[in-house]
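User: I'm preparing a small set of examples for a lab meeting where we compare how different chains pack in three dimensions. I only have the primary sequence for this one, and I'd like the structure in token form so I can line it up with the others. Please keep the answer compact; I'll paste it straight into my notes.
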Amino acid sequence: MPSQSRHIQLPSVDRVLQSKRFVELARQYGRDSVVSELRNQLEQTRKRLLAEDQLNEQTPATSNEAGTDESILEILHNDVLASLIREFTPSLRKVFNLTGTILHTNLGRAPYPQTAIDAMVKVSQGACNLEFDLQTGQRGRRDDHVERWICKLTGAEAATTVNNNAAAVLLTLNSIADGKNVIVSRGELIEIGGSFRVPAIMKKAGCKLRETGTTNRTHLNDYKDAIGKKTAALMKVHTSNYEINGFTKSIAASELAELAKAYNIALIDDLGSGTLVDLTAFGLPYERTAREALQDGADVITFSGDKLLGGPQCGIIAGRRNLIELIDKNPMKRAMRLDKVTLAALEAVLTLYASPHHLAEQVPSLRLLSRTDDEIKHTANALKQALVSALPDFAISISASKSQIGSGALPTKTLDSYAVAIEGNSAMSASALATLFRTLSIPLIGRISQNALWLDCRSLQHDLGELTNMLQLELAAPQQ
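Assistant: Understood. Below is the structure token output for the 480-residue chain.
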């Protein structure tokens, strides 16, 4: 009968936990997590050794053949540590966005200004006056922290905030037009990312969509003919992610405002991304500002805080005081309100717009959107040098590229840029390269085109040194 198998000779959990290595692991990751993973590793090791014994049909090895106690502890420690590192590595992580899309929805949209980051840290470290009026000593309104700035920058009578622009549209429609009709041009019934459709959100808001006009042409009389006793509002929707060209006709917001006023109904203007400044000052295409929308006669406007504004994810609602008060009283507002960290970030970003001449220096998204060709090419050259050193077996070049603003902002407009292109080869395809880059300590995200991984350099600026150092440390060593 065979002697004792190797898988029986493994140390007990209690014995392993007493070793110096595992005492330190328990201190770092918690005893329960270490015990759970240790049991898992011991069971896997037992099964593996038993399978080897059965496969080889040999006389079971002695303790020395299975390994010394010290070597077994080292193997167990390394396996348990590797598993714990994977488990405790944050799921939400920093990545390098070299896709060419600056405001990338899947990659977090706008990077925050440092002043916003500092403000978030301060209010998250302890108590703050989120809903407390320091002058009166009474309960306050959390939107007061940002309302004055929104009104100052847009010219609105009042303002409120929610967690994104979709929520802003939903809440506005439900507050103003619940059970009533809202007239929208067929050419503005858009679908944005994730199959999110304007008609669907209107239905959830409790109002009835009244389409008018055609996909490419809508006249003022189309709106006028659609108005009835149950009409609560006209709605103008930014087309966000597409543009109709050719034989087209749309009605200016100022004309819709006059029509709405004549029939004593509201004009809701959804600006989508929304901007507070004239983007042409940064070399970007013109986009109607929030102030201009209100000057055109909109009663309520809605727009995002995390796109062209360059702040945190939120939805901003601004306009006539009586309508904002109505929106604020809606019971759904509580479910959509901003937390203290987001409000702190938004307030910090809004204050930067008081000095618009310095915005490109202070708001990262505007800085990236307004970078010059020479700046981007210089970045591309530095990145190429680091990649040539780290990946000597690949053909690497710099090519002219086109960046997109992204997130439904100026959808058909592109910006000149430069990208570093790494061609796939027989040893590793472009797709495999992309997978490799996603496994780096800070994942690097590019785009694949023509069997090459393209790394657009417009969004790579202050963290260039961090990226090149990582490439040298994590890619160069395996190539040697």
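A couple of notes for your slides: The longest helix spans residues 31-56. Residues 96-104+367-479 form a domain with the Aspartate Aminotransferase, domain 1 fold (CATH 3.90.1150.180).

User: Perfect, thanks.
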